[in-house]
Amino acid sequence: xxxxxxxxxxxxxxxxxxxxxxxxxxxxxxxxxxxxxxxxxxxxxxxxxxxxxxxxxxxxxxxxxxxxxxxxxxxxxxxxxxxxxxxxxxxxxxxxxxxxxxxxxxxxxxx
Amino acid sequence: xxxxxxxxxxxxxxxxxxxxxxxxxxxxxxxxxxxxxxxxxxxxxxxxxxxxxxxxxxxxxxxxxxxxxxxxxxxxxxxxxxxxxxxxxxxxxxxxxxxxxxxxxxxxxxxxxxxxx
Lengths: 111, 117
What we know:
The complex is a heterodimer. Chain A is mainly β. In chain A, 0% of the residues lie in helices and 45% in strands.
């Protein structure tokens, strides 16, 4: 599975959009981009995933560049409860069963 | 629908003892995964069970072991506990193998916090 790179930390004002970038320049054609988040000392929570097209669900939007080398997770109206560590993970068909969590991005939403 | 449940929530042991952690997957899920998250560190993959068989294990010593029961629940055993085993242990489940179509996700429990004194 491809390695992903994320900024260590970001701040966002409450009510504003939070845009979290992820670089996955070595991603292969069959690898999906998944996003999870982990609120302090809880289990990670799935947010969204995509392959090529942009995706949106009730939690967030995922924008994947045309060359698929990077993506952005968008939380349209961040709240204080969105403060968490956000992980971007590339998952292919290697069937190892393991998710490789990097350091993620610590998003601090401020009032 | 009940999520992944883990017990106990907290566990305190002394060095050299054995710890047993339990996990019940979401109904209908056959795969169970275990991860370790030591303080200040990322999540590290420990074990993956599917249909009662160990499918993969991470870079951990053999004193970390587990099993999956016919009802798909799972147990993680840590023998000869060391201080550095203190961590949050997370269990996740999925309906089938991750990566077989890119559409399945791992659903995580709240974890068991193990403290080794």
